[in-house]
Amino acid sequence: MSPIPGSGLAKGLAVTLRTMTKKTVTAQYPDVQPHLPPRSRGVIGLFEENCTVCMLCARECPDWCIYIDSHKETVPAVTPGGRERSRNVLDRFAIDFSLCMYCGICIEVCPFDALFWSPEFEYAETDIRDLTHERDKLREWMWTVPAPPALDPGAEEPKELGAARKAADKLAAAQAAENTPPAGAGPADEGGPAGGTGPASGQGGQG
Ligand code: SF4
Ligand code: SF4
């Protein structure tokens, strides 16, 4: 059966009318910035103070696009007669974003919270080699990482916060002790034996 003359035109017009009434989804990027969810996987930031060079992220990365170099350093004993310790010092940390597939495995496996997602995505390059971001650039991304969502009311405080507060209190107490002159101390005390203050009190604090 031959088609009714003009039916094709009517179908086409029907499609046009249907799509004309739908909400447009075209984004006018880059004139208009997209509204991305705060946890979008844009780029990875490195907080290198937390990195212990354990190499877990580099080992687990399916694309082998994390490059880490380090060396060992000996840390002297903190107490007399104590043992020296050795620790890893980071020399290089780089991620090649031309290979990265944004799976997030490196961030998931990092046991020390050194890697984070940032929603920033505007880092296209004309030279593919520039997509390897070295540690300085990875650190800069860190400052674009959004703050974590607020805890639920009545939720238990994360242990990291408690530990950080304890360390800050300890530091403040040590600084206050340094700035407080010993009671009754004066020029006359300088030549005399150490009293109840000074190094002896510091040792008491450690014990
Ligand atoms: S997101 Fe995935 S592919 Fe990219 S660096 Fe991390 S582990 Fe590798
Ligand atoms: S897993 Fe975390 S701590 Fe270990 S090397 Fe990678 S970033 Fe550093």
What is this entry, summarized?
Its cofactor is [4Fe-4S] cluster. The chain is an alpha+beta fold and 207 residues long. Helices cover 29% and strands 15% of the residues.
Task: Give short descriptive properties of this protein.
6 helices, repeat, alpha+beta, Alpha-Beta Plaits, membrane, three-stranded antiparallel β-sheet, binds iron/sulfur cluster, 5 strands, two-stranded antiparallel ribbon, metal-binding, cell membrane, 4Fe4S_Fe_S_CS, 207 residues
Verbal overview:
- With 207 residues, this protein is α+β, with helices and mostly antiparallel strands.
- It has a domain of 100 residues: Alpha-Beta Plaits, CATH 3.30.70.3270.
- The protein has six helices and five strands.
- The longest helix has 21 residues.
- The N and C termini lie far apart (100 Å).
- The C terminus is likely disordered.
- InterPro entries: 4Fe4S_Fe-S-bd (IPR017896), 4Fe4S_Fe_S_CS (IPR017900), NADH_quinone_OxRdtase_chainI (IPR010226).
- It catalyses: a quinone + NADH + 5 H(+)(in) = a quinol + NAD(+) + 4 H(+)(out).
- It is found in: Cell membrane.
